[in-house]
Amino acid sequence: MIGRTWLRALVPAAAAWALASASCTQETLGQRFYFVATASGVADAKPGWTFTTSSGFSVRLDKATLHVGGVYLNQAVPISGAAETSCFLQGIYVAQVTSAVDVDLLSPSPTYFPQAGEALAGAAPTGEVWLTGGAIDAEDDATVIAHLEGVATQGALAWPFVADVTIGQNRAIPVANPAAPGENPLCKQRIVSPIPADQTLTPGGALALSIDPRPWFAAVDFSRLDVVSTAPALYRFRDDRDTAPSAALFNGMRARVGVYQLGWTK
C-alpha cells in the first residue's frame, strides 16, 4: 500500500507541476500537509428518492450505502486507473485518504473519514475512489461494498429489489491470453479512475466526496432480476459479473463521470 514515504518522495519534484496552479504561492508550493475528508450523498438525496432511468424504469431507493476504502488525487491524467500490470499509478499521487468509511447515499450530510488525509500543495486534475474492504490487491474480499433496497416499476409491474455487491473473485475477469496473466488484475475492478477533479490543493483545505447512485441503474433491466419470493414479492441482483442486471449495476457503480464528485474547499 502507498504510505507516507510516497509523499516525501514527491516533494523534490513538486515545484515542476505545482507551478501550473495560480493560487499556490511560492511559500506553499509543494508543501506537505494534512486535511479533513468527508463523503456524502448529493444535495437532493433523501430516503425514498424516486427517479426514472434511461431504460424507462421508475426507481424508488429506500436504502443505499457504499463502502469507500480510500480516495486519491493525482497530478496527471491516468489511463483507466492503472498501468497495464499494476494497481498503482507510480509517481503521480498528490493526495491520499487511506481510511475507510461507510456512506449513506440517501443523505447529503457529510460523513467524516476517520483519519486525516495527506497532500502536497498544487494541482490535482483527476482522482480515484477505491472500492475495497482491505488491501486493493487482495485475492478476494467478502466486504459488502454496496447495499441497496428499493422498488422499480414500469407500467403496472413492480420489482421490489435488494442488492449486496462485493468485489472479490466473483468480479475477476478470466485470463484470455496465457502470455499476459496480469492483464486484468482484480484490483482494477476496485478502482474508479480517472475521475475528473480539477482541484487546487492548498493547506487549510478539506476534501469533499459526493456520490450519486442514480446513474448506477441507467442500463439495468429489472425484469430480469432473480425472484426471491412472491408473497411478498422480492427480487435480487446476483452478486456476479455474468448476469445482465448485475453487470449493468456494477458498471454503473464504476462510472468515471456522473457518479463521483471531488471538491476542495476551505
Can you characterise this structure?
With 266 residues, this protein is mainly beta. The chain has one domain (4-18, 31-265). It has three helices and 16 strands. The chain has helices at residues 4-10, 14-18, 244-253; strands at 32-41, 49-52, 58-68, 70-74, 93-97, 101-104, 111-112, 117-120, 122-130, 146-154, 157-165, 191-201, 206-211, 226-230, 233-236, 260-265. The strands form two sheets. Strands 1, 4, 5, 7, 8, 9, 12, 13 and 16 form a nine-stranded mixed beta sheet that branches. Strands 2, 3, 6, 10, 11, 14 and 15 form a seven-stranded mixed beta sheet that branches. Strand 10 and strand 11 (157-165) form a beta hairpin. The protein is globular. Mean pLDDT is 87; it is low at 1-27 and 80-84.
Question: Concise description?
Answer:
Helices cover 8% and strands 39% of the residues. It has helices spanning 4-10, 14-18, 244-253, and strands at 32-41, 49-52, 58-68, 70-74, 93-97, 101-104, 111-112, 117-120, 122-130, 146-154, 157-165, 191-201, 206-211, 226-230, 233-236, 260-265. The two termini are 29 Å apart.
How are the secondary structure elements laid out?
Layout: H1 4-10, H2 14-18, E1 32-41, E2 49-52, E3 58-68, E4 70-74, E5 93-97, E6 101-104, E7 111-112, E8 117-120, E9 122-130, E10 146-154, E11 157-165, E12 191-201, E13 206-211, E14 226-230, E15 233-236, H3 244-253, E16 260-265
Parallel strand pairs: 1-13, 11-15
Antiparallel strand pairs: 1-7, 1-8, 2-3, 3-6, 3-10, 4-5, 4-9, 5-8, 9-12, 10-11, 13-16, 14-15
